[in-house]
Amino acid sequence: MILAVLKEKAGENRVSLVPEVVKQIVQQQVNVWVEEGAGMQAFYPDEAYRQAGAEIRPRAELLQQADILLSIRHPAAEDWKNASPGKIWMGVYQPLYNATLMQEWADKQFTVFSLDTIPRTTRAQSMDVLSSQANIAGYKAVLLAAYTYSRYFPMLMTAAGSIPPAKVLILGAGVAGLQAIATARRLGAVVEVFDTRPAVKEEVMSLGAKFVEVEGAADASKAGGYAVEQSAEYKQKQEQKIAESTAKADIVITTAQIPGKPAPILISRAMVENMKTGSVIIDLAAATGGNTEVTKNGETILHNGVTVIGNSDLAGTAPADASKLYARNVLNFLKLIIGKEGALDLNFADDLVKGTCITHHGEIVNDRVKQLQT
Ligand code: NAD
């Protein structure tokens, strides 16, 4: 079997496999082909892949001959339109937001695994690309905020007088939010946090931040680790409290997402306009609409003295480690679908294989994507 690592589109610096992981896959008797220069942006040169046992080949050969094609982002139409039926694609294809593309791939008879849909169970943790990448995004969000902010983060007492610590507000204490709290605390900021899941209160407090409670959140215990939409009454209560917190904050980092839906607007235009001049907002939910009313995805804007950075791709700004962790996630998932002597063994009785598979045998087979179509 041939497993191929494609070079990502311009603007994506990560790569699906790193040499250390290639070495382990080759030991499973799988041939690994890597497109020339695929790892360069993440600082993994072709020679390192060669030494790990991979062959460096041109893209056209990969597309024609590989059985499994790895690309973090979905490939360009000219790539997949000419690929032969039966191929397996594996990456982060956001099927809940790309249902039309998934149908086109089903029509092409591709088997598609989208690692962002892996069920959030304990067994899946080592394969959870959303977590491994969100962790980096949370860390980088704080560094970006600190770099952009025109003042210090920590409290400083100097001969020229003292500087108060920055006040950081974090909306959403999932994987990215928790890492953002830890990083902001390490830099000496005072941190306040909102989340609709009261279960995270303890974790937030153990990181030294204050958890702002809003009563009456919708029960998300059956949503597989994800958030659910909130009632109008809850949203109103939350809005009041967030308005009080944003008015005091120097930095706001927003991470709230609801799978398959636009991100909830938690910060209105009026709230941004009521923030202190020089404040900074980093919106990690920008790609699905953003958590503020003024966010522009992929852009940095200055709104009434507040810098608003809409960026959901911050993991890509640490491409070496982001790729390393992503590659380990891929390796752990491959172990579920590659059997003895490197042969493909798709076992759809396994909930992780089933939950991650989007299309197979000409159909959309993923329950969450199918629900969107009804
Ligand atoms: P996410 O990216 O979907 O959302 C980020 C956070 O925003 C979540 O904590 C969510 O509750 C919060 N949020 C959503 N709407 C909000 C609103 N209106 N106001 C305030 N906050 C809001 O979440 P995530 O980081 O991917 O993970 C969510 C949970 O799933 C975490 O508890 C995480 O530990 C768990 N998880 C489990 C596994 C596993 O067991 N395999 C893997 C990953 C995550």
Automatic annotation (TrEMBL):
Coiled coil: none annotated. Keywords: NAD, NADP, Nucleotide-binding, Oxidoreductase, Translocase. GO terms for molecular function: NADP binding; oxidoreductase activity; proton-translocating NAD(P)+ transhydrogenase activity. SUPFAM superfamilies: Formate/glycerate dehydrogenase catalytic domain-like, NAD(P)-binding Rossmann-fold domains. One of its GO terms (cellular component) is plasma membrane. One of its GO terms (biological process) is NADPH regeneration. It comes from the Bacteria. Residues 146-310 form the Alanine dehydrogenase/pyridine nucleotide transhydrogenase NAD(H)-binding domain. Transmembrane segments: none annotated. It catalyses: NAD(+) + NADPH + H(+)(in) = NADH + NADP(+) + H(+)(out). It is an enzyme of class 7 (translocase). It holds the Pfam family AlaDh_PNT_C. Residues 4-137 form the Alanine dehydrogenase/pyridine nucleotide transhydrogenase N-terminal domain. Belongs to the AlaDH/PNT family. The transhydrogenation between NADH and NADP is coupled to respiration and ATP hydrolysis and functions as a proton pump across the membrane. This is NAD(P) transhydrogenase subunit alpha part 1.
